[in-house]
Amino acid sequence: MSPVKEQQPSDDAPASVAQLVAAMQALGRYSGENSAAEHEAEAKRLGSANAYRARLANALLGLVEVETLLADGAGLSAEQMQAAHGQALVSAGVEDDPARLLGFLRWRALRVEGPLRDLAQDEATGPLILAAAHAAEGLQQLLGVCEDGQRLATASPTQMTADLIAARQALADAIANIDIMFDLIAQVERL
Which one, of 76, 185, 180, 47, lies nearest residue 123 by Cα? Predict the structure, then answer.
């Protein structure tokens, strides 16, 4: 099978609501009608057509991520796994452009940080979940600076400095939470 290339004519032409739903239907994971009336009602319920489209795109992403999780766990060699993961970058159209790749990876890190922060709100999770949330925040900040570094002609040194400071603080917070866990382990060992 040859790699799947980016199919969109441009970044300004996202998939339509009907196309997103059709993809969900193809996976057998949509039970609605895929009609204009249904889509209008859902857009109104969610507050806008953009909110509805985002909800559908993220629903499709979740479905595809589960399929990817299952496929990745199917006994692939490290080389096969790397090639499969690279296919995602090819399909996203970011594999040949370092700035776009870094922006895409930053977006992925942002998607990790939010759920970790939500989990960390429960004190029972302990300091490691919060450490992971801080590390994800630091990673996305660093990736943002790296992305800006690919476009030095238009990058703001002031913003890059602020982002580096934020990344350092987030990573220091991650280390502080790891140290809290070390202290807790030491207390348990002393008992």
Answer: 180
Check residue 1 and report its DSSP letter: -
Sorted by where each begins, the domain ranges of the chain are: 17-91, 97-190
- Tell me the two tokens of residue 55: 């909800």
Residue in this structure with the two tokens 């992971």, named with its chain if needed: 132
Rg (CA), the chain: 21
Q: Note the pLDDT tens digit of each residue in 10-27.
A: 556 899 999 999 999 999
Contact by Cβ (8 Å): 33, 24: no
Query: Which residue is listed with tokens 């060699």?
Result: 77
Give the three-state DSSP class for 93: coil
Give the residue carrying structure tokens 């990736």.
Answer: 143
Q: Which long-range contacts (CB under 8 A, 24 or more apart) does 143-147 make?
A: 143/102, 143/103, 143/105, 143/106, 143/109, 144/102, 144/106, 146/102, 147/99, 147/102, 147/103, 147/106
**In whole angstroms, what is the distance from residue 53 CA to residue 24 CA?**
13
Structure tokens given for 26: 């193809």
Distance (Å, whole) CA 175 – CA 165: 15
Between the two ends of the chain, the Cα-to-Cα distance in Å is: 59
Contact between residue 148 and residue 155 where contact means Cβ atoms under 8 Å apart: yes
Structure letter (DSSP) for residue 96 = T
pLDDT digits (tens, 9 = 90+) for 25-61: 999 999 888 899 999 999 999 999 999 999 999 999 9
